[in-house]
């Protein structure tokens, strides 16, 4: 493990770990309680600093200690800043670190459990049942659908137009999920569906930020909007399930797999409510994350013309004027580096939480049972101990030969271990197909080269505002 105590910080932070109150604690041999930040407050702990800007909070904290104690109001938990310890939690001892019940209850509210929210046997059989829909061989057949949706979007774009990239990419990635996972065209229902998922993401984000939870049955504007959003999602997905039940043609997609699935040790199949929860979780987890990553890429390229030029040269070399297919994706190596570097700086899932079932020891630190553990993904991906000039956008750091030296749990925008993102191969191929199609047709510019790229945190970390960009012909 990295020696945290001897090394000088490259970029000193004004925040330090708080001195221990009792001499005894420092004299005791291992394990010891994790330290807290020196600016942690008596009443609210780290709540105001964290909620003010969770991203800077996490980037600062990662430099302080491998594991820290954190408190948001009355909720206290541990922050994991070290890749070895992250690996221990997510892989080696993963049976002790389950999905965090508070987060899962917020996500499941009004719906049902799904692959994302379950644990243990219940999770494993779902994962095994759904995995074939995401195998490389299966994904290989989805390139045409992705290219076709992108072509349809491009047909509505013209030079001189200003496009809100966040919305445009969310629509495109939602159409892609509809086509690739359920073989349906979401365009007819798109306005309602798009708004419903936005309401869902915003409400979950707000509910997670509350230190004192409000009951979901209270007839507040927020709760009513959330219930209406769930109803829209149900109303859109139910006819898709019904139509497929009566279809005689197998589609070999995720929906066929979900419909055929038999629950473990019984002949019981998913009920419609369970099916909708699973389908909806895929739409939710799969479209926004990919859309915001694409948006960040366009914005970063507009600010880094030298990277854009290298990318365009790769498109020319590999594609020779054609639209990309799945077969081209492995050859778009610099494109992959640009995607990785963007995900390093702006991981949509900037942190993830787990719940310690039993008391344990993380590195030198004792942790209590029944407490949450937050894995500092964005912090580790931007820690100056491991990354030269981490604030700079530099896709060369992801050159293939460098990957071997890197700790697998230091860079994990899709997570690592058994719970890693099931959609990673789809998301990566999708982005590698969409990027050349858009960038070879249009140059996208920001209002000014000085435009700063600000973030917001709702459920995922996303660009602040619409990220409006101007299209001009290549
Ligand atoms: C750039 C795009 C994406 C990013 C950054 C991303 C990130 C992640 C991360 C970090 C996790 C782990 C969450 C946790 O356990 O704490 C995850 C899980 C998951 N993702 Fe993705 N994801 C992306 C795209 C997709 C796509 C396209 C799909 C589906 C089509 C998808 C479906 C899922 C599902 C179902 C899980 C839960 C897996 C399990 O627990 O077994 N994701 N994703």
Overall description:
Mean pLDDT is 90; it is low at 5-12. A hairpin with a 2-residue loop joins β1 and β2 (75-80). The strands form four sheets. A five-stranded mixed sheet has the order 1-2-8-5-3. A three-stranded antiparallel sheet has the order 4-12-9. The N and C termini lie far apart (49 Å). It has helices spanning 23-27, 47-52, 54-61, 83-92, 101-108, 120-130, 136-139, 143-154, 165-182, 190-209, 221-245, 254-260, 272-303, 305-319, 333-345, 377-381, 400-403, 424-441; strands at residues 67-72, 75-80, 97-99, 162-164, 352-356, 360-362, 365-367, 372-375, 442-445, 455-457, 461-463, 468-473. It is of the alpha+beta class and 474 residues long. α8 packs parallel to α18 (424-441) and α13 (272-303) packs across α15 (333-345). Helices cover 47% and strands 10% of the residues. Bound molecules: protoporphyrin IX containing FE. The site of protoporphyrin IX containing FE has 23 residues, from α13 and α18.
